[in-house]
Amino acid sequence: MSVFVRLLARELRLSLRHGSDTLAALLFFVLAAALFPLAIGPAPETLGRMAPGIVWVCALLAALLPLDRLFGAELDDGSLDQLLLCGLPAAAVAAAKALGHWLTTGLPLLLAAGPLAMMLRMPDIGIPWLIAGLLPGTAILSLLGTTGAAIVVGARRGGVLLPLLVLPLAAPVLIFGVAAADAATAELSPRPHLLLLAAMFALALPLCPLAAGAALRSAAE
Fold first, then answer.
1. How is the chain split into domains, by residue range?
2. What is the pLDDT of residues 93-143, one digit of tens each?
3. Which of 1, 88, 125, 189 is the most exposed place for a label (fewest CB within 10 A)?
């Protein structure tokens, strides 16, 4: 566990050193959402109805931005081999990477989602449930993104392949996350959709690091 904590601390220090990646993801999230009122008009009813989908789509795309650097730098300078020899299983290394990605990208997006939903005129009753869905949803996106980044590491045009791998897998997360916020806005129970998101997180938590670890071992060989 101490090795895992040190590896996570290393990821956080690297993220602070390259803080522009987090800032770029956050700015993309805000600016992309701000373009929708210009395209569909400023009518509060229309914006409020579409706000959950806008926030979720922008969060999904913003979470993809830092993924191409997740393992690429370590592969280029040879430190990926050192990470795999640090005493942790490859799956634990991938889990530390996923947690670091969520703390530096998913968590800032989660914090910005509430003000952004208010800007888009989303009804107040739905905003807490939107954030409640984003909490497991962004974690799932980090797990899926880490797995995709491990699969394409070292591949030519990996930055092009990565969204093609992650986006289809993230579609159910998007569907149920938006459905939870829509149900709350319509004064229905969002509980079934949130439970499905929690079930997907419980499934992704063990499987994604295992798959990413196997991909990392293959890339190192």
1. 2-220
2. 889 889 988 998 899 999 999 999 999 989 989 999 999 999 999 999 999
3. 1
